[in-house]
Amino acid sequence: MNNQSEIYFEYLTTPIGQLEICANESAITSIYFSNVQQQYAQTSELTHEAAAQLTAYFNGNLTEFQLPLGSAGTEFQQQVWQALCHIPFGSTCSYADIANQLQNPKAVRAVGAANGKNPISIVVPCHRVIGKNGTLTGYAGGLDRKSWLLALEQKVNGTISKR
Length: 163
Prior knowledge:
Shape: globular
Distance between the termini: 30 Å
Structural class: alpha/beta
Strand content: 15-25%
CATH superfamily of the largest domain: Winged helix-like DNA-binding domain superfamily/Winged helix DNA-binding domain
Order of helices and strands: EEEHHEHHEHE
Radius of gyration: 15 Å
Largest sheet: 3 strands, antiparallel
Number of domains: 2
Number of helices: 5
CATH architecture of the largest domain: Orthogonal Bundle
CATH class of the largest domain: Mainly Alpha
Helix content: 25-40%
């Protein structure tokens, strides 16, 4: 992450709760579900663009985000988050699939931990990772939201397919 001094915030109301979008001068740094809205939000063109793309996603009109991302994390977390970005819209995969993709098949738990620390909800689609047996597993935003997001993508895409 850049050591930029300006931090921008924008809040977006969605069908599954309020999102807090954070950015620095050059990239989106986090998108979290939030129950608290600051009295004052300092927005930017980048937070406006992220809000517009997220709105289009929730309306079923966007299947791929085009935003500069700049979240802080370890090298391994960055690798996992990059792998998440390659899960196609409307598809799911398991933690083991991600570990295998990273050529580290024993890192299933570490992949799960990195997935759980993903700071950019929805845009970095950690909601598309499910248990190896096909069950919904942990999601920082809650399993109800995860289920809702997968159902939205299924509706838009026609079906959810396992990669």
